């Protein structure tokens, strides 16, 4: 591959923003990627920072996959209990809501486990 600007020079890499071939004169090495010198450096730096933050947050939040399903399970249990333990008669609406929240908690837990396993 040749440099996009200097067609007679071999490219050393590709710009992370525009994917054009870059020679040593045109490339700005930003550590985690190359950028067109003077053109895409800010964009590539912002992209690298975003990627680094995302990796850091996902490594910190490994147990976060249990928080949302746990909350839904808690809501389901609360609705089920309030539907069953009423002084007059069982509330079909509360029981249905409780069952719905418990099922949704299970679905969310399974989906999160699959997502975090990758």
Automatic annotation (TrEMBL):
The chain crosses the membrane at residues 66-85, 91-111. The keyword Membrane applies. It comes from the Bacteria. Keywords: Membrane, Transmembrane, Transmembrane helix. This is B box-type domain-containing protein. The lineage of its organism: Bacteria, Pseudomonadati, Pseudomonadota, Gammaproteobacteria, Nevskiales.
């Amino acid at each position: 591959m040749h440099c996009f600007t200097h067609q007679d020079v071999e490219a050393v890499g590709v710009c992370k923003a525009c994917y054009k071939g870059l020679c040593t004169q045109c490339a700005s090495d930003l550590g985690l990627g190359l950028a067109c010198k003077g053109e895409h450096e800010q964009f590539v730096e912002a992209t690298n920072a975003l990627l680094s933050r995302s990796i850091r947050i996902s490594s910190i939040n490994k147990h976060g996959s249990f928080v949302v399903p746990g909350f839904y399970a808690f809501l389901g249990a609360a609705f089920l209990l309030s539907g069953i333990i009423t002084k007059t008669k069982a509330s079909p609406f509360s029981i249905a809501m409780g069952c719905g929240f418990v099922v949704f908690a299970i679905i969310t837990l399974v989906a999160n486990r699959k997502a975090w396993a990758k």
